[in-house]
Amino acid sequence: xxxxxxxxTKLQMALWAAQILLALSFIGSGLFKLVTxxxxxxxxxxxxxxxxxxxxxxxxxxxxxxxxxxxxAFIRKPGLIVWAASGLVTLMVCAIxxxxxxxxxxxxxxxxxxxxxxxxxxWGRRMSxx
Length: 130
Description:
This protein has helices spanning 2-35, 38-44, 46-50, 52-68, 71-74, 79-101, 109-127. The chain is mainly α. The protein has one domain (18-127). α1 (2-35) runs antiparallel to α4, α1 packs across α7 (109-127) and α4 (52-68) runs antiparallel to α6 (79-101).
């Protein structure tokens, strides 16, 4: 029984760590995409200048997803974390496909890391009863 409780505590700590990393990354990138001028972002990411509406849309999704993996725990709606994590999984899959289709495979490692974290949170929060 004690061993099971230790596993559960370690899993909860790992899930919280993943959620915090996701929240910081996505809230930060969302705000960056929303407040930085498109011309500045286009210097870093050529696609931003080509698709400014996509840039703002993904910035909004980033911000919502980042808030969504943290806030529900504090308002006693932890089931919403699963939905937010699934949204981030979908967003990262789309980002990977987008970059690969443009021949920008070098831009995808961060997306794969975020995808892995979002999948872990989706799995862990879906399976855990807290």
